[in-house]
Write a structure and sequence with these properties.
heterodimer, A: alpha/beta, Peroxisomal Thiolase, Chain A, domain 1, 2 domains, 11-stranded mixed beta sheet, globular, B: alpha/beta, 13 helices, 15 strands
Chain lengths: ~400, ~425
């Protein structure tokens, strides 16, 4: 574990989900008296359900139309959420701070041109020289700049161009693990004094046929609309992908204090691992990670944000673990309200945890009738993400005294 | 040796390289690669992996001599990385679980077209309408395809390496485009400097050359079209350079704190003494005209190493052979090295192995360390028509003997990615 020489705090939150745009919209929805209503779309990609992009005016964070046109929605959403986080931290348009700011982005790949792909598949059915067909069609049909909208590291590249964050730029990949590693790396660097302020996060667009394919390749997607995340037997009902852009500004406490920044929460520890999951190995590993994260014994005054993906058995095991390890902590299943956002899932959980710790008020249940009502505002939060195929991460955050 | 001798100018642990492995179009293993590289041999050849008739670029530096169970980028990238890691660990004298973190630079993954065609063939005749992806989803709803799933996951390569070599924790898979290999090394160095590990495995691999990958770069006018003489196509710093040659490869470096390495009697191949990075906010594919971010990156690496530009004896250039990179790289180097620039040898490995993309920064770091340990500068081949606006000593066409104690290696990539490494001989 990292030898903590500097405390790491969160000073900026940029969050866009199906629930709305920005920190305040999420704060209002999650601290009201009523359980927020999940925004789902079960028609556009039937039989699948997705949590869609909310109404959004890209120009609010991506001023130049030319920049907007160079991206597809995945990159636009990430650039937008990053801009929100910078704004929120008071760094927006602060050229000096942004030019020395580090950046770690969790990324998958961008949107494919499904019309071109469809054309090639259709033509290919009539031809026995498919490789030649492929060369001909790709050469004539692909938009040259689409490549740049697909490249994983070009989300970070666009953040540099639009928001002038240029201290460093690193893109981490690997599904859910990418989001975990991004936060883990940023935390470790700041704690060790290798970085003073860092933009970290990711984006995910659920409304993509080419991304639904990833989860449905192992038949992971939920197919019955209107079902709750958890069924009565305690297993999950399948993955509903959720659009989310989640970025945080992390700073050393000294750096944040020196400039009088508002501190949402302290990011105490981030731990991660991987390995076999059979025969209780997953639970053993989670138990060790929870201990390493310094998680409180039973979870009193703690709120748990679970990034459970929705795979029935896997999520059930996570839920059982969390209820055993943190019997006294109210559990909030991110996927129930926001869907599963793969690379952005862990950063989304962290953003929600920061809102909860900063709110000074209990966070409403994410699903009516499923989640325990929190009796009081939490003083600490646990965020989990268990990758749908591999990788597990746990973060612990505390309210600043 | 006193405790202070294990620390750098900022009191951080010195990071030694104790094992290396490499694969490129020149062959497998450091011995064969170094022999070919110092002999000025080119690994560039006509494309045989897929038909290239009618394409504007029909040459490449693919690695086609390592067996893979299925022809896709995940299998190929994994196989290369496995081979270089086996070589590196053997050289380091390490066996059993590695027990340190893994930092893997890997190419962004997409389904192969062969896999899409195969899914398309499984569609029921009645379903063959509408968007192809809706058809694919209908197929997968009936029959899951775990092999396809694994072949399209970005985390699949590091997972297998982690299992095979017993690395610790959640492996990091990264992409900083053509700077990825350098970033993988930088992450390893940072982890050791943080004190959270005594050793780290930095791996970079790229087995992603396909028709679509090639065509995408072609559409951006990035590739050489000198198809008639493949081995002459990559000609960095010449007047008639016309683009890079897409290639494959991998490299692994075993990083250890110098103190730990010496304590277990390991042979030290060199020190990663400095890492620098700085992003460019100018354009998605083009660098800032004045090269300011590249200049800042080189300076950051030197500062991190605690060295002045005068102490660099050789530069392993990014040297892609694109009109723009080579010009910008020269400008940046000239700004940092000043009047001394004309006297510092600078060569481009890419003149022989092409651009190994994700792997390049690590492959070229291995070769830089070989220069330090053998006292040989590999040449820049195909330097027949020098660009008069780039007055560099490029070690033209023939290797040169030189004693070098510190090397600068540059990596610049799409998306404003810049990363530089400084590598040094073991302190006396």
């Amino acid at each position: 574990m990292t030898q903590t020489r500097h405390e790491v705090v969160v000073t900026g939150i940029g969050l866009v989900t199906s629930l709305g745009v920005g920190r305040q919209a999420h704060h209002d929805a999650l601290t009201g008296a009523a359980t927020p209503v999940a925004h789902r779309d079960s028609e556009r990609f039937a039989p699948y359900t997705v949590h869609p992009l909310p109404e959004i005016d890209w120009s609010a964070q991506i001023a130049r139309r030319g920049d907007q046109r160079q991206m597809e929605n995945w990159q636009r959403l990430g650039v937008y959420a990053a801009g929100l986080a910078l704004d929120d931290a008071g760094f927006k348009d602060n050229i000096e701070a942004c030019s020395s700011m580090d950046m770690i982005v969790a990324a998958g790949g961008g949107e494919r041109d499904t019309a071109v792909d469809t054309l090639i598949i259709e033509e290919g059915r009539k031809r026995n020289d498919r490789e030649q067909l492929l060369n001909d069609k790709l050469t004539t049909e692909l938009r040259p700049t689409l490549f740049l909208a697909q490249l994983s590291n070009l989300l970070a590249g666009n953040i540099s161009i639009v928001h002038k964050v240029t201290g460093s730029s690193r893109t981490l990949m690997g599904e859910e693990g990418a989001g975990i590693s991004a936060v883990e790396t940023a935390h470790a660097r700041i704690a060790a004094g290798q970085s003073t302020h860092c933009l970290v996060g990711g984006a995910f667009i659920a409304e993509r046929l080419d991304i639904l394919l990833l989860i449905e390749a192992v038949q992971g997607l939920g197919k019955n609309s209107g079902q709750p995340f958890w069924n009565s037997g305690g297993t999950a009902n399948g993955v509903n992908l959720g659009t989310s852009g989640a970025f945080l500004v992390l700073e050393s406490l000294e750096h944040a204090t020196a400039r009088g920044a508002h501190i949402y929460a302290r990011l105490d520890t981030v731990v991660a691992d991987r390995g076999p999951r059979h025969q209780g190995r997953l639970e053993q590993r989670l138990g060790r990670l929870a201990d390493e994260a310094g998680a409180p014994a039973s979870g009193a005054e703690t709120i748990v944000f679970s990034g459970a993906s929705g795979f029935p058995e896997l999520s059930a095991r996570e839920r059982t673990f969390l209820k055993t390890r943190f019997p006294d902590a109210p559990l909030r299943t991110i996927g129930a309200l926001f869907g599963h956002s793969v690379e952005a899932q862990f950063p989304t959980g962290l953003a929600l945890a920061c809102l909860a710790l900063d709110a000074g008020a209990p966070i409403s249940p994410f699903a009516a009738g499923e989640d325990a009502v929190a009796p009081a505002a939490a003083g600490s939060a646990i965020v989990t993400t268990i990758g749908h195929a591999r990788g597990e991460g746990i973060a612990r955050l505390s309210r600043m005294p | 040796m006193s405790k202070a001798a294990y620390k750098d100018h900022l009191g951080r642990p010195l990071v030694a390289v104790t094992g290396m492995g490499v694969v490129s179009s020149l062959g497998q293993g450091i011995k064969d690669n170094w022999a070919a590289l110092t002999a000025g041999k080119s690994g560039i050849h006509p494309i045989t992996r897929f038909p290239s008739d009618g394409l504007s670029t029909r040459i490449c530096g693919t690695v086609d001599f390592i067996d893979i169970p299925a022809a896709n980028a995940v299998e190929r990238s994994f196989a290369f990385a496995r081979e270089t890691t086996v070589e590196a660990l053997a050289q380091a004298g390490l066996s059993g679980d590695f027990d340190g973190p893994l930092f893997l630079a890997a190419p962004p993954i997409e389904p192969e077209w062969s896999a899409r065609f195969e899914l398309g063939d499984r569609v029921k005749p009645g379903d063959m309408t509408g968007n192809a992806y809706e058809q694919f989803l209908a197929v997968l709803r009936e029959h899951a395809d775990p092999a396809f799933h694994e072949a399209i996951m970005f985390g699949a390569i590091s997972e297998r390496l982690a299992d095979m070599f017993g690395t610790r924790g959640l492996p990091v898979t990264l992409s900083t485009a053509c700077a990825s290999g350098a970033t993988a090394i930088q992450l390893g160095v940072e982890a050791i400097r943080q004190g959270r590990t005594d050793r780290a495995l930095s791996v970079a691999t790229d087995g992603s050359v396909s028709a679509e990958a090639l065509i995408r770069f072609s559409l951006l006018s990035a590739l050489s079209t000198s198809n008639d003489s493949p081995e002459k196509a990559s000609r960095p710093f010449t007047k008639d350079r016309d683009g890079f040659v897409i290639a494959e490869g991998a490299a692994t470096l075993v990083l250890e704190s110098l103190e730990t390495a010496l304590a277990r009697g390991a042979r030290v191949l060199g020190i990663i003494s400095g890492c620098g990075e700085k992003a460019d906010d100018f354009h998605r594919t083009r660098s800032s005209p004045g090269g300011a971010p590249a200049i800042a990156t080189i300076r950051a690496a030197l500062e991190d190493a605690g060295l002045s530009a005068d102490e660099i004896g050789y530069i392993n250039a990014h040297g892609t052979s694109t009109p723009e990179n080579d010009k910008m790289e020269y400008l940046a180097l000239a700004a940092v090295f000043g009047d001394r620039m004309a006297h510092v040898p600078v060569s481009s490995n890419k003149s022989m192995i092409g651009h190994t993309l994700t792997a390049a920064g690590a492959v070229e770091a291995v070769f830089s360390l070989m220069t330090i340990s053998t006292g040989v500068l590999p040449p820049t081949i195909n330097y027949d028509n020098p660009d008069p606006t780039i007055p560099l000593d490029v070690v033209p066409n023939v290797k040169r003997d030189a004693t070098v104690t510190s090397v600068l290696s540059n990596s610049f990539g799409f998306g404003g990615q810049n990363a530089c490494l400084v590598m040094s001989a073991e302190p006396a």
